[in-house]
């Protein structure tokens, strides 16, 4: 996992290398200062040699300045390396997510991906910075201070060594217990973010149904789960501070008591005792830093696993070695197609689908909710791969095409119409980034969107809010249809995409399709008979199987499902919409 993440250090390798070097230089300067201070006390103050005090004091100032420079440089390069590493991780994750198939996306929740891109990467960034700085500085400080202490007095230095070994063992056990709780905590952030995302995106429904109290309760529960896990983890980590304080003061007392006796017996000087006390604080404070590093590593270990999962995830859909780069026409054929969303499905969503659609035909698709209408059309643009059988477009298996080429020739207007923040023209040019204003206007005319756009004060330069919240459902649908038309596709799929449009406007859109784009294969999924009854053929779906596939008149005579739906929709006088537009 670490090797996958460390590949993203890239251009920040230099900063990542020099940071620990500066940290080591800072440690070396810090270790020299107590040694020089002992010399000032023993050979300067006690001997009354003012020149020695000035001379050694000058060296102390230089060492302090060099240490200060090294610390600042280490902090600067460490921040640059960790922030750059985090930036590269986010970019790599986002880029890989763009390659995911629908099957890959189904594996992760949207909230989970957001958490990995934000909270998890931030944890890794903080851990990386601490590793570069503290993880190099603390061990180097412990080793150097221990060496200097043994150089001064082996007997007193043994106290440090014993303290480090005992304290290190205890801290290791505490952090090991805390780690499992940290690993449990971060997946809970997914639930928290999911609660927030669902509430904010559906805030109108929440208020319409007066569900604020229930949503608040759900959020509180998700937040409470994270709180409880972190409390359990911190109960272990919190013992770190009192143990450290106890060890520090015990060492100071022992060294002071034993050191004083040794000074009296002239086996230790006052300056050496001062140096040993300074090294004592260095050693134990470095051990404290090291424990903080291990806490941060423990917290980020779960994040490392979660981020590496996204980075190593491979799309279930891949281009062939020599892909077909042109779609000849809009003909479609399903040959004994079975489809399931994953291997764990008890039964296929689609079963034994055999269909042949000619290029330029208009096909209506009708069926009850859950009859797999959307699943069927998703296979045409290869948003999913079939479980068995094959789907052909333009006479070739969709798996033989370059996916970008295929999807550019199969325009899909999905059930959930999505507009992005920007002007109307910006949204339209998702269909063709090079489209001229005239082409955009023509596409909107075909989709019957031009009439309401012209009524806006800013026309086609009207700003669309995120999610298209400042336009109605019908307006949003027509803009999405116009966007799809700009691709000039060979196949156009409308997945219940005129449900919010009145029947008169719906009829005008269909008439424009019939007259203006006769060579484009049009597949219209709808719950309204009026939207599809003039199609060349109508496909009736039932529980993932084809129940009928014929013209409107033939289905009325031969298909019970179609006849029942037709009669239920027409016996009351048909649809009530009469006026076009909004």
Helix content: 55-70%
Residue fraction in strands = 5-15%
Mean pLDDT: 84
Strand order of the largest sheet: 6-9-10-3-11-12
Specify the number of helices: 20
Can you lay out the helices and strands and say which pair or pack?
Layout: H1 2-6, H2 13-45, H3 50-98, H4 102-107, H5 110-152, H6 154-201, H7 203-208, H8 212-237, H9 240-264, H10 270-312, E1 332-339, E2 350-357, E3 362-367, H11 373-378, E4 388-393, E5 396-397, H12 403-409, E6 410-413, E7 422-423, H13 424-428, H14 437-446, H15 450-453, E8 463-464, H16 473-485, E9 491-495, H17 503-516, E10 521-525, H18 529-532, E11 537-542, E12 545-550, H19 552-558, H20 560-570
Parallel strand pairs: 3-10, 3-11, 6-9, 9-10
Antiparallel strand pairs: 1-2, 1-4, 4-5, 7-8, 11-12
Helix pairs in contact: 2-3, 2-5, 2-10, 3-5, 5-6, 5-10, 6-8, 6-9, 6-10, 9-10, 14-16, 19-20
Structural description of this entry:
The protein is α/β, with parallel strands linked by helices. 63% of the residues lie in helices and 10% in strands. It has 20 helices and twelve strands. The protein has helices spanning 2-6, 13-45, 50-98, 102-107, 110-152, 154-201, 203-208, 212-237, 240-264, 270-312, 373-378, 403-409, 424-428, 437-446, 450-453, 473-485, 503-516, 529-532, 552-558, 560-570; strands at 332-339, 350-357, 362-367, 388-393, 396-397, 410-413, 422-423, 463-464, 491-495, 521-525, 537-542, 545-550. The strands form three sheets. A six-stranded mixed beta sheet has the order 6-9-10-3-11-12. A four-stranded antiparallel beta sheet has the order 2-1-4-5, with no helix packed on it. A hairpin with a 2-residue loop joins strand 11 and strand 12 (545-550). Helix 5 (110-152) packs antiparallel against helix 6 and helix 14 crosses helix 16 (473-485). The longest helix is centred in the N-terminal third of the chain and has 49 residues, at 50-98.
């Amino acid at each position: 996992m670490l090797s996958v993440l460390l590949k993203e250090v890239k251009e920040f390798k230099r900063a990542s290398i020099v940071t620990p070097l500066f940290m080591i230089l800072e440690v070396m300067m810090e270790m020299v200062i107590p040694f020089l201070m002992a010399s000032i006390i023993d050979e300067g103050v006690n001997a009354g040699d003012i020149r020695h005090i000035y001379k050694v004091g000058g060296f102390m100032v230089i060492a302090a300045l060099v240490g200060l420079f090294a610390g600042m440089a280490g902090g600067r390069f460490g921040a640059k390396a960790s922030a750059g590493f985090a930036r590269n991780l986010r970019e790599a994750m986002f880029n890989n997510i763009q390659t995911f198939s629908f099957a890959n996306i189904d594996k992760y929740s949207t909230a989970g991906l957001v958490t990995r891109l934000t909270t998890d990467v931030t944890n890794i960034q903080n851990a990386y910075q601490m590793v570069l700085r503290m993880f190099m500085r603390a061990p180097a400080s412990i080793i150097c201070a221990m060496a200097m202490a043994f150089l001064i007095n082996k007997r007193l230095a043994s106290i440090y060594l014993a303290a480090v070994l005992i304290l290190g063992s205890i801290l290791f056990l505490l952090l090991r217990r805390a780690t499992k709780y940290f690993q449990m905590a971060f997946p809970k952030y997914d639930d928290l973010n999911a609660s927030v995302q669902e509430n904010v995106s559906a805030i109108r429904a929440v208020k319409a149904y007066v569900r604020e109290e229930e949503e608040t309760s759900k959020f509180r529960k998700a937040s409470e789960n994270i709180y409880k896990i972190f409390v359990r983890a911190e109960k272990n980590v919190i013992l770190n501070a009192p143990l450290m304080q106890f060890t520090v003061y015990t060492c100071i007392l022992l060294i002071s008591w034993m050191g004083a006796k040794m000074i009296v017996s002239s086996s230790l000087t006052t300056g050496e005792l001062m140096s040993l006390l300074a090294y004592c604080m260095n050693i134990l404070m470095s051990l404290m830093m090291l424990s903080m590093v291990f806490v941060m590593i423990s917290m980020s270990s779960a994040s490392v696993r979660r981020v590496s999962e996204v980075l190593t995830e491979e799309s279930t859909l891949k281009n062939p070695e020599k892909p077909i780069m042109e779609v000849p026409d809009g003909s479609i054929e399903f040959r004994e197609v079975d489809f399931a969303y994953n291997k764990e499905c008890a039964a296929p969503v689609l079963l034994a689908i055999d269909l042949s659609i000619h290029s330029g035909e208009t096909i209506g698709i009708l069926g009850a909710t859950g009859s797999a209408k959307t699943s069927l059309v998703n296979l045409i643009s290869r948003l999913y791969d079939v479980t068995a059988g094959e789907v052909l477009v333009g006479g070739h298996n969709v798996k033989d095409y370059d996916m970008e080429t295929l999807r550019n020739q199969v325009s899909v207007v999905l059930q959930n119409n999505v507009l992005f923040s920007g002007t109307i023209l910006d949204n339209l040019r998702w269909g063709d980034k090079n489209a001229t204003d005239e082409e955009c206007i023509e596409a909107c005319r075909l989709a019957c969107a031009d009439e309401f756009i012209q009524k806006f004060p800013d026309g086609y330069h009207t700003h669309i809010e995120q999610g298209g919240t400042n336009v109605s459902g019908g307006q949003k649908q027509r803009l999405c249809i116009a966007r799809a038309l700009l691709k000039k596709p060979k196949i156009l799929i409308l997945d219940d995409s005129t449900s919010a449009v009145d029947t008169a406007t719906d009829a005008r859109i269909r008439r424009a399709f019939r007259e203006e784009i006769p060579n484009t294969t049009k597949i219209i999924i709808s719950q309204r008979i009026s939207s599809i009854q003039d199609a060349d053929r109508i496909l009736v779906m039932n529980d993932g199987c084809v129940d009928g596939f014929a013209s409107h008149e033939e289905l009325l005579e031969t298909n019970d499902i179609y006849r029942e739906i037709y009669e239920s929709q027409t016996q009351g006088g048909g649809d009530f919409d009469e006026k076009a537009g909004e």
